[in-house]
C-alpha cells in the first residue's frame, strides 16, 4: 500500500515539511543497517484520537537501542511528546500509523557505529490494514518460508533493529511471489519463530499457544495486549515450542502486530486451518481488540494515550 504523505515529520526536535525530511546518502544506517524503530497506531475514539500503548512502544524503542549500543539523545518523555505533536500537527482524526526511527547519521565510514551521530525522526500517515480488509475479515494464506529466523546469538532478536528486517523482507517476497499473503519463519532449530512482522498463534484444545521469545520471536506490544485480552476472557495462553505441523492440525490460528493488528490465518502451506474460516475464539479476540483500541472497553482504557 503506497504511503500517503502527511504535512509534517518530527526530526531531531523540529517539525519539518514532509518533502524536506531528508538524510545524507552516506549516513551509517543506510550502509550498515544499524538503528532501531517502532510501529505505532493511533485510533479515533469518542474523546478524540488516541495513540495505542504509546509509552510501551517508546520503552521498547529504548530497550532495542540499548541492545544495539545506541544512545538515544532524547528522553522517553520527549519522544512521547513528539509522537503526540506529530499526530496533532497533521490533523489526524480517523487514525494513523506512526514510525519513530533512530538512525546513525553522517560522519564516519566503517563498521564501527560508536562515533556516529544518533538521529531520531517520527513520521505519521494514514494507513489501512497491513494485510488488507479481506485478510482481516476472512483470514490470510501463509507459507513456511525457506528463510530461517535469525539465531539470537547471531543478531539480537530481542531488538527491533533496522538491518535485521532484510531477513523478513526475503521471506515476505518469497511468500508473495508464490501466491501467499504472509510467511512463517522457523528458528534455526526448525521450530516456529514468528511471521515476517507479526507474532503467531494457534488454538489447540481451547488453549492459545505461541512460541517463546527464545525461538527468536520479538516480544510484541500487540502480543501482550492480545494475551491480556485472552486471559481476561478466561482463555489459557501458553508460550511453548511449536512445529509447522501444529498449524496444519490447529483448530484456529491467527497473527498479531501493530501494522497487521489481529488477523486470522485460514491456511498454512495449502492446508486449511480448521475449516478455513476464522474461528470463534480468533473472532472474539479480534473484535475485543478493535473495540479496545477505539476506547470502547473500560478495563483497557489506560492503554490509550489521548492526543487532546
* CATH-assigned homologous superfamily of the largest domain: D-amino Acid Aminotransferase, subunit A, domain 2
Oligomer: single chain
Major sheet details: 9 strands, mixed
Q: Name the average pLDDT.
A: 97
Question: Using DSSP, what is the number of strands?
Answer: 17
List the helices and strands and how they pair.
Elements (H helix, E strand, L loop, with lengths): L7 E4 L2 E4 L10 H5 L2 E3 L2 E4 L6 E3 L1 H14 L8 H14 L6 E9 L13 E8 L6 H7 L1 E9 L16 H13 L4 E5 L5 E4 L3 E6 L2 E4 L10 H12 L4 E3 L4 H6 L2 E6 L3 E8 L2 E2 L7 H14 L10 E3 L2
Parallel strand pairs: 8-9, 8-15, 12-13
Antiparallel strand pairs: 1-2, 1-7, 3-6, 4-5, 4-6, 5-17, 6-7, 9-10, 11-12, 11-14, 14-15, 15-16
Helix pairs in contact: 2-3, 6-8
Describe, in plain words, how this protein is organized in 3D:
Helix 2 packs across helix 3 (76-89) and helix 6 crosses helix 8. The two termini are 29 Å apart. It is built from 8 helices and 17 strands. The chain has 2 domains: 8-125, D-amino Acid Aminotransferase, Chain A, domain 1; 132-293, D-amino Acid Aminotransferase, Chain A, domain 2, CATH 3.20.10.10. Helix content is 28%, strand content 28%. The protein has 308 residues and is an alpha+beta fold. A hairpin with a 2-residue loop joins strand 1 and strand 2. Strands 8, 9, 10, 11, 12, 13, 14, 15 and 16 form a 9-stranded mixed β-sheet that branches. Strands 1, 2, 3, 4, 5, 6, 7 and 17 form an 8-stranded antiparallel β-sheet that branches. The longest helix has 14 residues, at 54-67. The model has no long low-confidence stretch (mean pLDDT 97).
